[in-house]
Design goal:
The protein is of the alpha/beta class. It contains 9 helices and 6 strands; from the N terminus they run H-E-H-H-E-H-E-H-E-H-H-E-E-H-H. Helix 3 runs parallel beside helix 4 and helix 4 packs parallel to helix 5. It binds 3-methylbut-3-enyl trihydrogen diphosphate (2 copies) and magnesium ion. The site of one 3-methylbut-3-enyl trihydrogen diphosphate has 11 residues, from strand 2.
Length: 249
Amino acid sequence: MTDVTAVATGKMPHHLAIIMDGNGRWAKARMLPRLMGHRKGAETVRMVVTECSRLGIAYLTLFAFSAENWSRPTAEVSALMNLLKKYIQSEVPRMMRDNIRFNVIGNRGDLPEEISRELEEAMAFTASNTGLTLTLALSYGSRQEILHAVGRVAADIAAGRLSAESVNEAVFADYLYTAGLPDPDLLVRTSGEMRISNFLLWQLAYAELYFTDINWPDFNRQELLRAIADFQSRERRFGLTGDQIKARS
Ligand code: IPE
Ligand code: IPE
Ligand code: MG
């Protein structure tokens, strides 16, 4: 058992990112349609958002729909879009209650206009909240994001708004969808898959990775605390030696 109090009083990840995977397999194992897995998964999202907010985590980023997920069967894509719409509508009041700032990364232009509008409204409505920043990655692909940034950097250089010599890591990061967000320090992926699937390739450079076999609909508070406890037990070295790190702390 994870010692809940020890975890809650320990050092929290500043930015937790999650690849929420395994909804389909959860449903299949129960002979249910995949949509039921996504519905149950949305409940897990509610729980995780509430818990992270309570634990005082500053940033939570959830991979909800990838640029590649558009290639899934049309019925599944529309069901996911519907679920997303319902989620936003039902969650905004709760975000206001819990002081949560809502944010979206990804190619919003790909999303149905109605959804895009709902997202804009939710962001505007929660913009001055000062608690947890909740970011949903929607129609998100990291290589696409990097190319998009490179294109904008090139355009700014061509227009004389930016000098080529001034492009360093911090300047480049400001051209990504995640501009203004710190890099994740912990990445969790559920369902036993051990891959990044084109998620935050630049931003995860030094993140701690945590994989669990649990499917997303079964991921619960205990599992979240377990992931955080694991994070708390690690020594982050950033290229230094263990002795150097100990001397610093
Ligand atoms: C994650 O669950 C949700 C999305 C990618 C939208 P999946 O739908 O990928 O579930 P599996 O991987 O098929 O079990
Ligand atoms: C990654 O899950 C995308 C999301 C969680 C939204 P996938 O299920 O689409 O990833 P792959 O295809 O198994 O790598
Ligand atoms: Mg999957």
